[in-house]
Amino acid sequence: MAYHDKDLRGRGEESLVRSHDRAPAPGAKIPEAAAPASPDVPAAKPKTGRAKRLVLLAVLAVILGVGGYEGSYWWKTGRFMVSTDDAYVQADITILSAKVSGYVASLAVGQNQSVKAGDLIATIDPGDYGLARQSAMDKLATQRSAIARIGRQIEAERASVAKAEAQIVAAQADAQQAASDFARQQQLAKSDYASKATFESAQAARDRANANVKIAQAALLAAQADVEVLAAQQVEAERVAAELQTALAKADRDLSFTEIRAPVDGIVGNKAVEVGTYVQPGTRLAAIVPLASVHVDANFKETQLAAVKPGQVVHLQVDAYPNHDIRGVIESVAPASGSVFSLLPPENATGNFTKIVQRVPVRIAVGGGVAQQNLLRPGMSVVVDVDTRTSAGDKTASVR
Question: Where is composition skewed (Low complexity) in this entry (predicted)?
Fold first, then answer.
């Protein structure tokens, strides 16, 4: 027993010496000594294979659940959907251009301002066009005065015609009397009851009366011809007046073009002029975007068109509004692929040929309730999902 105690003391001293040899340098951090293991506490056991199996089973269950859900969705819905992300919001944008030349006198709207059809957008200096209109009015008034003057002349000539007709009647009466006098003097001259001088005077009176009848008839013809000439001049003057009326209408139209008004409801954008800018016919002033009539142009692959028909309901996912489910209806399918209408269509009959899947534009109408909220702007990117199970009877569009 003494030997055993001595041996323990020796081992203790040796342990102290070794601990002293491993003492840390001054200032070094001394690690905490590990607590001696208690003989009564059992050591921790590693993870068992059972726990691993539970984890693998849980992961497998999640995978099967997600796969089953996705498979069920595809079988019930997904296989009937035709999708594309090559789609954009479009609108029939109206470009406002100047019809007449001049300086911009005023601008009634600003950028991104809402306008109604008929609202004033801008005015061009109307000075020259107002003078042109006044000149046309003056010329028309002068021509109308000329027409009135010719009308009075026609009335005067008709009076001359009546006078000539009366003169013919008087001349014929004088001629008849002269003829009777001549016949009577002629009978007297044969019986030597009248002198030769008296007979010759009666004969001269008869000839003069006949000549007066012819003069009166010629005067009547001249008066009638003058009436016809004046009537023709009146028609010509009226036609000139019609031309001047057309010139006045053109002047009025040119003057009206100095006021540029909105042809449709929408929002003004891309304003390109300011007050004082000189514009010419065709100069672009601004654009009006009718947001209430926007639509979506989706470019589907030609391999997707077999199931796409007008009237089918479409789900629209706009990138700008990810939380909105917008619905629309296929309105029409383009008669050709987009490449056919391009500036330089491909010529596949020459050179090396590489088949490329073409895309065909499809127009999608958006419900009026959606469009009137002004959520959609032309150019926005859209993801289109066509539900091929629907038909034309499901033309409902809504926003959720």
Answer: 31-45
50: which 2 tokens?
């059972």
Residue 93 φ then ψ, to 5°: -70, 135
Rounded to whole angstroms, the Cα distance separating 73 from 70 reads: 5
Q: Domain check: are 326 and 278 in the same one?
A: no
**What pLDDT is stored for residue 73 in this prediction?**
62
Six token digits for residue 176: 């008849």
Closest CA to 152 of 225, 230, 223: 230
pTM for the predicted model, two decimal places: 0.63
394 domain-assigned: no
Mind listing the pLDDT tens digit for each residue in 184-209? 777 776 766 666 677 677 778 887 88
What value does the mean pLDDT take over residues 28-43? 47
CB 376 within 8 A of CB 318: yes
Give all strands (DSSP E) within the chain, no chain letters. Answer: 81-90, 94-97, 102-107, 114-115, 120-124, 259-261, 266-269, 278-279, 284-289, 295-301, 313-318, 326-333, 359-366, 381-387
Choose one of 242, 257, 272: the last residue of a domain. Answer: 257
Residue 7, pLDDT above cutoff 60: no
Q: Which position has the token pair 């073409």?
A: 358
Report how far residue 113's alpha carbon sits from residue 118's, in angstroms, rounded to the nearest whole number: 14
